[in-house]
Hints:
Shape: globular
Radius of gyration: 16 Å
Number of helices: 5
Helix content: 25-40%
CATH class: Alpha Beta
Structural class: alpha+beta
Strand content: 25-35%
Largest sheet: 7 strands, mixed
Number of strands: 7
CATH architecture: 3-Layer(aba) Sandwich
Amino acid sequence: MEPNVTDATHLRHYRADDVNDPFRQMLIAIHAEVYADVMDDEFNQRFPWFVNHWSSMEGFSCVVAYDGQEPIGFIYGAPLSAGREWWREHIVPAPEDSSTFAVSELMVRPAWQKQGHSTRLHDELVADRPEALAVLLVDTEHPKVQALYESWGYAKVGDRRPFADSPLYAVMVRELS
């Protein structure tokens, strides 16, 4: 099925060098809108730290969707360091080529959800990646989101709680070639 994306929407790529305070604030504002009903949770309040952490990683890549000049969603991630791939404990033995791109965040503002923007953002981010694998975490309390990732070729390989106060996440991996 073709995404229901208007002709007015377009995508822009950003790298670590493009991340400045207005850009960070745009990501943070979208996160606050998407998670408005759970922003009292301390884990969600730490999102600015995650933006700073990921955007400082070598190879950071972000794609933002715009409707005209209005940012409507984003996705970002970065390559994981060799030997530090956090999915390794779930796949034994590890694939021969275990180079990994980690998809960290994918968010679309509520007014633009269920229109194909998530698929378009994801596909754009992982297109032409040199890594062999993509990995991401999805809250186990959101089976519809997990099913969406499965429709994109990801498979659940285990569960992980990366922080003491974080949700339990499904670890999902897919080949990129």
